[in-house]
Each structure stands twice: as C-alpha cells, then as structure tokens.
Amino acid sequence: MRILIATDAWHPQVNGVVRTLTSLAKSNAALGVETEFLTPDGFPSLAVPTYPGLRMAWPNRREIARRVEAVSPDAIHIATEGPIGWAVRAYCRRRKLAFTTSYTTRFPEYIAVRSIVPASLSYAVLRHFHAAAAMTMVATASLKQELGTRGFQKLGSWTRGVDTDLFTPDDAAELDLPRPIFMTVGRVAVEKNLEAFLSLNLPGSKVVIGDGPQKAALQRRYPKARFLGEKTGRDLTSHLAAADVFVFPSRTDTFGLVMLEALACGTPVAAFPVAGPLDVVGDSDGGVLDADLRQAALRSLAVPRARARARAVEFDWERVALEFVSYLAPLGGREPAPLPALRRYA
Predict the structure, then answer these.
(1) Could you check whether 2-161+316-345 and 181-313 share the same CATH topology?
(2) Which of 46, 87, 122, 265 is most buried when burial is the number of CB atoms within 10 A of its CB?
C-alpha cells in the first residue's frame, strides 16, 4: 500500500508535527506500507504576518496535481490545514477521491492571541475544512470530545508515539547548573505560555531549549533563566535526561509530543491539568498535574524516574502506525497485510 501525506509542516521546521510524520513514515515502512510526502519543498513561500519567522508555501493547482499523480497513491492523508492542505483537499474534491485529515494544531487559539480574529471564526473555517474528510484523526480523547462539542464530525482516535531507542535516560548531558534543574522545550512563542514557567518561584535553575520570536524579550525579562537554543537528536535527548523535572506550561497544545520525549528520558513532567497533559501524563504517576504549576513542579521532584520512563514506553510507535493505516486502508480498497496485528492491542 502506498500512502501520500500532504503537509505544510516539514523540515527544516522543528515541531511535533514534523517529528510525528517522520517517525510515522519509518514505522509504516516496517509494516510494509510505503509513505510519500507532498510538502512545501519547491513551492514559492510567503511570510505569515501573525506568526513571526514562519513562511507558508504558495502552491499552484497544476503542480499539486502533477505531484499527487506522480505518486499514484492508494490513499491520501492531509496532515495540516495550511495552503498545501487546502490545495490537496481541492484536488481530491475535484476528482471525488476520499481522504483523511488530522487535527494537530490549535490554530484558532494561536491566531486569536496574535490578531483580532476570534477563535469562533477560525473554528468555523476548520469545521468546513475537515467536514469533507472521510475521517479526521485526533490525538487525544479529551480533544476529540472538545471538537465534538464544537460541531466536528467523523472523528477518529490516532494517538502519538515516542522513539524509546532515541529518547533514553542514558548519557545525560553534564549541565553545570544549580540543582534541581527545571526544563522546558519548544517554540519560544506566546502560545506556549512560557512566562507561566519562567515566573515561578523555584529553587535551582530554569532552562529553556528552543527558539522563536519571544526569545529575546523573555531573555531580557528573565535574566536568571538559561536559554540554550534549539537542540535535536542525541543532543536534545541528553539535555532532557539531565533535567530533574520537565515543565510543560502550554494550555493550547493538542498533544504535546515533547512530554513523551521527556518521560522517555526518565524525566517527570509537571503541567496544567488540560487537554494534552491529561492524556499523556494523566494519573500514570509519571508526573504531576496541578492548576498551581509551581506545586506541580515541586511535587514532580519526588517522582521516580523509572515511573516516568514506564509511562512513555506505553506509547508504542508500532501501534500508532497500525492505527493510522487502519483508517487509510479502506480508502485504497484493500487491507494491508499487517492490519490484523492491530487486534492484539484491543
């Protein structure tokens, strides 16, 4: 089976969507499923005024058709609601092709904090976008319930996984900083709510890994915090393993893949009890959720690192890939050979 995934988020971007799709392709290959991507590569791009530093592709109809037809996919999945996503959606609609989508980013909330566009208007646009799909995949039960109350239909559950061979407690970085070390990782932007973390009265050190439009302002406002920039691969893993607590202050992420990565490194997670953390950490004893983020961070110091790691291991990438393929297989008119393996997770 050959699947085409259309996505506006792609390398060199460093975010949860890109990491998820890259890992998905690897896991699909192990199942005998071929994955091709239709990305912004090769298209002209424009800056996004409400999202500093981000550029969006400007695809044309003929080239979209050429790229889709060159792949000749058995099934099509649209991962994002940007220009690439809309263009591939239009292609499928013109040719009466079934496709699936996924809801991966809370664009309505992100746009609302950066502009005068109300979230209700953005949700109306997204409902229209996803209504044409045979299935819209949602990462968590809490988000699925929320979108249902907002009028989204044909919702399916597709969780996320973590590479537990890459993200491990081993080979922690030597950080010459006062302990305990409270760390957060992600785009340094207003929607990530980093000030909720940086403003906490905590012992030891606060570390921020990542880059983004708010970095310079937050460095000036919180000179005692350490901003270490963007890190990837083993470098990121070693830093996550070196932290005593991973603090996730976001209230708007649909999942929060980086929480899984921290847990896999044996680092307990402190977060607000909102969608994302409720599904990733929940009542697993791998971290602490509390409306008082300071209390969550301090209480997380007592969480055994083995418990954090054990929670991450539950999010197996083989299962994630099988879930994904199970939604796409009917669109291609045939079931791929590995699909029956999904029954062992029932």
Answers:
(1) yes
(2) 265
Cα 164 → chain centroid: 16
CATH top-level class of 181-313: alpha beta
List alpha helices for the chain, DSSP H. Answer: 16-30, 61-71, 83-94, 107-114, 119-131, 141-149, 195-198, 215-221, 233-242, 257-264, 277-280, 293-300, 305-313, 317-328
The total of other beta-carbon atoms located within 10 Å of residue 284's CB is 16
Tokens of 104: 């991966």
What's the pLDDT tens digit per position in 33-83?
999 999 999 999 987 765 655 678 999 999 999 999 999 999 999 999 999
pLDDT tens digits, 270-312: 999 998 999 999 999 999 999 999 999 999 999 999 999 999 9
Burial label for 180, CB within 10 Å (0-12, 13-18, 19+), is middle
Closest CA to 191 of 117, 122, 113: 113
SS3 315: coil
Residue 182, classed as helix, strand or coil, is strand
Instruction: List the domain boundaries for the chain.
Output: 2-161+316-345, 181-313
Q: Which CATH number fits domain 2-161+316-345: 3.40.50.2000, 3.90.190.20, 1.10.150.120, 3.30.70.100?
A: 3.40.50.2000
State residue 210 phi and psi, 5-degree precision.
140, 175
Phi, psi at 338, each rounded to 5° = -75, -10
